[in-house]
């Protein structure tokens, strides 16, 4: 913000000068809290689905243990990720975000499977008694949960965007409040500016704001 003084001197003032106290401490509308709560709720629901997907990793590990089926199935991963990207585009979800997100889900699942296989190798008494069928039983469950997670990720993205918009609007309005308050606060300076800058009051421009020499 620029204030012109009578002498033509321009005072450049940052409108967001803070007092050390955050505006949010004193002036947080309830609507912001609603948005934060919405984000937290969507994130918690997504985490619950992620935990459910991981729990299915136990079944995947059991289906693969003692069989020829490798833990790593790159072709399946590629199909899954391609599907995730295509579905994301359909529902308006950021495909880069969802690709990255599901890559992590897959990595976590493989880590779990490796750990379980190592555990079962060392502790035969812990080995699963039942070996579910990967193709007909477990993978359809994984696919169903993956689909649910995509929609939840979309809800989270929407909640975040809404909060960002709200944040922007809030910041804008606070900016105006600052401008207005600062304009009022600086009226005496504006009115007396010419006198202040021309009178010899012992102020040198370079010494303003410095502590007096001892
Ligand atoms: C879960 C499996 O194991 C691995 C993990 C995958 C996943 O999390 O989707 C996919 C393929 C495998 O690399 C599986 O084979 O289905």
Automatic annotation (TrEMBL):
It is an enzyme of class 5 (isomerase). SMART domains: CM_2. Its EC number is 5.4.99.5. Pathway: Metabolic intermediate biosynthesis; prephenate biosynthesis; prephenate from chorismate: step 1/1. Gene3D superfamilies: Chorismate mutase (1.20.59.10). Pfam families: CM_2. The keyword Disulfide bond does not apply. Residues 21-117 form the Chorismate mutase domain. GO terms for molecular function: chorismate mutase activity. Keywords: Isomerase, Signal. This is chorismate mutase.
